[in-house]
């Protein structure tokens, strides 16, 4: 009889706790989606104050979708591009109930631009991302950081310092070593060009005549359309062109260098390959067959990450989320929902 009473008591107790937890969760969800009628709604845009070098600037963010459990903070490439080339994400992630956040880094797009190369350095950008994460209330229970190209460098560096503050990491189309990236550009990609085009490009680069219109005339068909986005340039999606047209050249040249083959800026010697073993959060590396980044090297990165997985886009290039969309987004969504 005593056993029966104890069992009954425990059943009632745990049922009551379960109901309370359920109500609590429901209340949290309702509060999350509720619109505050006391303030003007602005489409999820938030200007975030960030303090750097004892100066306060504001960076632009915009939330797309609502999901308290899955939030993806996007780090754009370049360096110096804008969030806009990510706009194709709107066609895939919201339908799966996945929230993501656009974010223009300092000096990019809608964010403040100090017009000072003093601010164009990797450690400062890492601290900027951390300030943005805090301001948006992103936590280790819901926040994934997706860094594409230069954003992948920033994401890796951020994770090495602040991985305990996020749930997962996505490194999209970026190798963990700039020297190896430069080597791949010189020894593989350059040799795939027509010899006459490569000869002329090298002549222009040797003369440091990067403003020469002929430089882009050669690069677009021989490099950009082969390895950046595998479509005729006249057919490139409007968000890509809009973003590239707004490139902060000062930021790009300071960190990347003026050449499209490898890196000659202050990221030239950046290499975190041997440190990948220290990133313990769940991670996804995305590589593509025709990318400017070596897909085999990116597979190797997956093997070095303790909790890494690899997504390979066989039809994709550097912007694989455009030229191999189905593979890219299926793999990304599966990863986020695991």
Question: What does this 3D model show about the protein?
Answer:
The protein is α/β, with parallel strands linked by helices and 338 residues long. The protein contains eleven helices and eight strands. It has a single domain, classed as Rossmann fold, CATH 3.40.50.1820. Helix 9 links the parallel strand 7 and strand 8. It is globular and about 65 Å long. The N terminus is likely disordered. Belongs to the peptidase S33 family. It comes from Flavobacterium jejuense. Keywords: Hydrolase.
Proportion in helices: 40-55%
In the CATH scheme, the class would be Alpha Beta
Q: Any guess at the CATH architecture?
A: 3-Layer(aba) Sandwich
Strand content: 15-25%
Number of strands: 8
Structural domains: how many = 1
Family: Belongs to the peptidase S33 family.
Pfam family, one: Abhydrolase_1
InterPro entries: AB_hydrolase_1, AB_hydrolase_fold, AB_hydrolase_sf, Peptidase_S33, Pro_imino_pep
Organism: Flavobacterium jejuense
Q: Could you list some keywords that capture this structure?
A:
Pro_imino_pep, Rossmann fold, hydrolase activity, Proline iminopeptidase-family hydrolase, 11 helices, 338 residues, disordered N terminus, hydrolase, alpha/beta, AB_hydrolase_1
């Amino acid at each position: 009889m005593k056993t029966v009473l104890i069992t009954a008591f425990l059943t009632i107790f745990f049922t009551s706790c379960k109901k309370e937890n359920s109500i609590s969760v429901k209340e949290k969800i309702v509060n999350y989606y509720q619109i505050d009628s006391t303030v003007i709604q602005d489409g999820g845009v938030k200007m975030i104050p960030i303090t750097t070098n004892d100066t306060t600037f504001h960076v632009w963010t915009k939330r797309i979708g609502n999901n308290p459990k899955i939030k993806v903070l996007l780090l754009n490439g370049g360096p110096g591009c804008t969030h806009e080339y990510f706009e194709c994400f709107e066609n895939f992630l919201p339908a799966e109930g996945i929230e993501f956040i656009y974010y223009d880094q300092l000096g990019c797009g809608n964010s403040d631009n100090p017009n000072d190369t003093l601010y164009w350095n990797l450690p400062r950008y890492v601290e900027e991302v951390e300030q943005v994460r805090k301001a948006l209330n992103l936590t280790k229970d819901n926040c994934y950081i997706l860094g594409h190209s230069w954003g992948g460098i920033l994401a890796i560096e951020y994770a090495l310092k602040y991985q305990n503050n996020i749930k997962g990491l996505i490194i999209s189309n970026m190798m963990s070593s700039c020297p190896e990236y430069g080597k791949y550009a010189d020894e593989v990609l350059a040799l795939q060009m027509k010899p006459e085009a490569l000869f002329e490009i090298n002549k222009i680069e040797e003369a440091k005549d990067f403003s020469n219109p002929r430089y882009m005339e050669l690069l677009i068909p021989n490099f950009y359309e082969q390895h950046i986005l595998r479509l005729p340039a006249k057919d490139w999606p409007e968000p890509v062109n809009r973003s590239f047209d707004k490139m902060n050249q000062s930021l790009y040249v300071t960190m990347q260098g003026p050449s499209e083959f490898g890196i000659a800026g202050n990221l030239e010697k950046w290499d975190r390959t041997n440190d990948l073993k220290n990133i313990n959060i769940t991670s996804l590396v995305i590589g593509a067959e025709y990318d400017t980044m070596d897909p085999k090297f990116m597979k190797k990165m997956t093997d070095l990450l303790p909790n890494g997985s690899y997504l390979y886009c066989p039809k994709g290039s550097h912007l694989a989320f455009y030229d191999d969309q189905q593979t890219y987004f299926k793999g990304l969504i599966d990863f986020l929902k695991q």
